[in-house]
Design brief:
The chain is mainly α. It is built from 33 helices and no strands.
Length: 670
Amino acid sequence: MTRDKENTVSITQKNDETDADFQKYRHFDNKFVKVFWNILLILIPVLGILFVFGVHQRLGISLYSQQYVGLFLGLMLSAIYLSVPASKNARKDKVPWYDWILAVLGFNAGLYVFIYYPKIVMAMGIVDTSRFVFSVVAVLLILEAIRRVLGKGLLTVVLVFLLYGYFAPYFPGVFKGTGTPINQLFSYMYLDSNSLLQMLNIAATIALSFIFFGQILLHFGGGEILNNFALSTFGRYRGGPAKGSIVGSSLVGTITGGPVANVILTGSVTIPLMKKNGHSAREAGAIESVASTGGSIMPPIMGVAAFLIAETLGIPYAEVALGALIPAVLYYVCLFFQVDFMAGRKDLGRLKKDEIPDLLKVLKKGWMIIPALGTLIYFLFFLGYSPQVSGIYASLAAIVFLSIEKSVRKQLLTLLLRVFIGTGKVMLEIGIVLSAAGLVVGITGITGLGFNLGLMLSGLAEFGLLPLLIVSAIVSIILGMGMPSIAAYALVAVLVAPTIIDLGVSPLAAHLFVYYFAIVSSFTPPIAMACFTAAPIAKADPNKIAFSASRLGIVGYLVPFLFVYAPELLLGSNTEVSLGQTILTVSTALIGCYLLSMALEGFLFQRLSIINRIIFTILSACLFIPYSVTQYSWIINGVAVVIAVIFVFKEWKKIKKEDAPPIINSVKEL
């Protein structure tokens, strides 16, 4: 066994463990049932790819996109009821009779849309008995699927919204909404293009394409290449495992789709290495949680949320990805600084030579992933293809180039089968998450709740933009707790973002603002899902991990405020700001991150006094004031930089006087 294989865990294997441990699928004893379930899973990506490439149009078949979405819904519900038990105590090796019935009903709920939607769309306001029955059955099946796959938390949220949809006229004040007859309400949620079908369309096209791309990278060794590259590059420096965790999680996280999955995939390797290197279990879990959460805000894929933001705003995906780039870099740079100062404070060394994957071997395999990522960027940014089509082309390129590896080529068919099945599995969760979001969005729209909440939040506008942003951030964190990132964004985008836009904030900045806070809820107590996932790997208390993660991820709470007041950080979204202003704002923000990190960790070249930590905190706050906020910003920034340089120089002179070679050697590693 080669050295790099000894010291890393296959991403593909971890992906399989993720399914078994966290999604709790049944393990079928009956081969026929297992084959039937696998066929359902395979059909989900196969039909999706055919639809994305418009094969039906070339065959002369005319289809509404909602008809395809209906077929996707039917396959998804059938597969969920066959594979996910009704309770923890239910048998895991056999499908009970009632789940067979629910699976058939689920498939028919989707088939009804597929067959009858052309007639339905011509008489949307007329709800006959059959449509009402199918609507009720479909909604109830989706609710039970939400409970089984995602738990009671999200189910409770959706149920509250559904009850509100019926009783809205009886609520007081701003919560009083428009009433809708029960048959119209269920029909709207099930069949209207502004409710369930709208969100499922995103799942069945854009999300499917990039989940397929991610599964190819994971199963064909691309994820392992990214993780090994991070460890081999940074393992030789102080705090190497932690730095490798940050880089690896940012690379792998953008293709996995969420913080929890990212913690499982990369944390299984990096957390034990961090502990072995001298980090406490609490610190190791916190670093991995914050690093994994950042994958959802790191372009190009951003856990599929970038495409949802683009769809919501009606702007090109490239604009969203470009706009999110600098805030994501600030997030990771600040975390990187903190980890480095933490390693210096704890006097941590580097990884042992035999623990570092061989860089030449990694690069020898690693080049094969570049054409796949290059294809994605080329089709998206240069040719202007849609995200879903670009994702499929990038997937094909990944298959071709990653198959150059002999071990991959030998089991190509087996790996492809795993990719299609794995894509189907992931799409069950993504699909039901967006189904939940679709129901919430539908209720919010038909009752006027979004407009009413906007009015309520607008009352804070009397006190200025900052109070509104603070309240919006808190609401976004609360709504995002315990939810997948896409569902969290879907909620806050409807309930919070419009009010911020009404106060003059650019739409992209407003949506990224609420998305950031929905995401950081993954490591914010008390329901920090990324930390709860890291806890069993790190063998530490999840709440203690969450509190440490909140300190490490502090810039995640600051950056959204920064780009709201300094839209120049969102590249390409503000043509009125010069390039010089953008460079100045980014530069001062980076220096601010550096000073804030050393203040939080209490270390520069040696341990810092309390007074110096307070001074560096104040200086970092001054540097976070954007150039565009006031005409005196550049003076405040300039003075802060000068004072910071003086204090850093004084700290440097101290260690020279004390003649501390070990510390100086550590400094050189920066």
